[in-house]
């Protein structure tokens, strides 16, 4: 194992860094750690109240131990996640991490939720750099592109802005993300080589393996694959999903059954979920996970570096055989649900 380009003597714990696996992110020059930090939990938006001091301590510890990629978005807490990350990283050497954020999705409700236009994208990069306290962003992503009326709107608007930003050095790479995989595929084809990475979330988890069908295409197009939400946005944890979770009730029941079995055996379903995602035999650069608490960092690192203990493996196998086998193709995802809700909400704005 060799040290990654993000290694900084005096900051990193060299022995821990040597244990971590690094993979090239598509055709970019980023060598990213196999597990990375998702910024969705670094704000008070969706997953409960954040303990900032613990989050700061956890993120810095994660970086010291060789995790080198942090992925956030303006949308997470209306810029709050970016601001928190900016504060956390204030005294961390810039060389030690790659920072990724997103544009196009801004607010939770109302007419300003999405803007796929060029001007808004050029403006939002400046806002993000200010909040993150950096003078360039390693990866800038088109966020949740399925909410655009059609993908061409994104390609002719926000993507054009991203190409300009890349030429000017404000961003180093361009990414696309969203939930429906077919939309991401269409976006990558229409962008004609301008997209460097694709972030998919909750598409290779204990209850959904849809990503497998699309990986050969992503690899052929040489886009780096970022696999996010390996815990299914809280669905596959002992705490269970947040109230807003879009999964169907039957899927939530199956996940709840798995979490009860884990709890009664004193095992973390979240660790099994992380282990399962990382077992994917295909070309994925990094697995993005929420790590706002030290116990989550330890669980995720343990799943990544050591795998499962004998008792965890026993429960994992039992769940795969008797619980997750109940998930049918109709149940496994919640595609279309949120877009439809957004379209319905949009109709009400024009009435006023």
Q: How would you describe the overall organization of this protein?
A:
The chain is α/β, with parallel strands linked by helices. The chain has a single domain (14-349), classed as NADP-dependent oxidoreductase domain (TIM Barrel), CATH 3.20.20.100. It contains 13 helices and ten strands. The protein has helices at residues 14-19, 52-64, 80-88, 118-132, 151-156, 158-168, 181-190, 211-220, 249-264, 269-278, 294-305, 310-322, 337-349; strands spanning 22-24, 31-33, 35-38, 69-71, 98-103, 139-142, 174-178, 197-201, 224-228, 286-290. Strand 5 (98-103), helix 4 (118-132) and strand 6 form a beta-alpha-beta unit. Helix 2 (52-64) packs across helix 3 (80-88), helix 3 (80-88) runs parallel beside helix 4 and helix 10 packs across helix 11 (294-305). The protein starts with 13 loop residues before the first helix and ends with a helix. It comes from Polypedilum vanderplanki (Sleeping chironomid midge). This is NADP-dependent oxidoreductase domain-containing protein. Residues 35-319 form the NADP-dependent oxidoreductase domain.
Q: Can you give the helix content as a percent range?
A: 40-55%
The CATH architecture can be named as Alpha-Beta Barrel
How many structural domains can be distinguished in the coordinates? Answer: 1
Shape: globular
Write the H/E string, N to C. HEEEHEHEHEHHEHEHEHHEHHH
Arrangement of strands in the largest sheet: 3-4-5-6-7-8-9-10
Q: How many H/I helical runs? A: 13
The CATH homologous superfamily corresponds to NADP-dependent oxidoreductase domain
Protein name: NADP-dependent oxidoreductase domain-containing protein
GO molecular function, one term: L-galactose dehydrogenase activity
Pfam families: Aldo_ket_red
């Amino acid at each position: 194992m060799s040290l990654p380009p993000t290694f900084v003597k005096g900051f990193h714990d060299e022995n821990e860094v040597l244990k971590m696996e690094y993979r090239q992110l598509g055709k970019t020059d980023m060598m990213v750690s196999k597990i990375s930090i998702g910024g969705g939990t670094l704000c008070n938006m969706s997953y409960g109240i954040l303990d900032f001091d613990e989050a700061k301590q956890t993120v810095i510890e994660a970086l010291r131990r060789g995790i080198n990629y942090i992925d956030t978005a303006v949308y997470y807490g209306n810029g709050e996640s970016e601001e928190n990350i900016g504060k956390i990283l204030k005294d961390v050497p810039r060389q030690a991490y790659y920072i990724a954020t997103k544009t196009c999705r801004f607010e939770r409700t109302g007419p300003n939720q999405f803007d796929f236009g060029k001007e808004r994208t050029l403006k939002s990069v400046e806002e993000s750099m200010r909040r993150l306290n950096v003078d360039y962003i390693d990866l800038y992503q088109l966020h949740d592109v399925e909410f655009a009326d059609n993908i061409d709107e994104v390609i002719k608007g926000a993507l054009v802005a991203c190409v300009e930003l890349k030429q000017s050095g404000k961003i180093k790479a361009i990414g696309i993300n969203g939930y429906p995989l077919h939309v991401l595929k269409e976006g990558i084809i229409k962008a004609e080589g301008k997209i460097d990475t694709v972030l998919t979330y909750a598409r290779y988890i204990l209850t959904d393996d849809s990503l497998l069908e699309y990986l050969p295409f992503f690899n052929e197009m040489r886009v780096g694959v970022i696999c996010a939400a390996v815990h299914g946005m809280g669905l596959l944890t002992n705490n269970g999903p947040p109230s807003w979770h879009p999964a169907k009730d039957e899927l939530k029941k199956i996940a709840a059954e798995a979490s009860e079995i884990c709890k009664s055996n004193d095992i973390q379903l979240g660790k099994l979920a992380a282990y399962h995602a990382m077992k994917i035999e295909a070309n994925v650069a990094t697995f993005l996970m929420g790590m706002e608490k030290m116990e989550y960092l330890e669980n995720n690192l343990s799943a990544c570096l050591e795998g499962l203990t004998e008792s965890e493996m026993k429960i994992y196998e039992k769940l795969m055989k008797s619980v997750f086998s109940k998930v049918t193709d109709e149940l496994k995802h919640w595609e279309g649900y949120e877009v439809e809700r957004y379209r319905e909400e949009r109709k009400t704005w024009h009435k006023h």
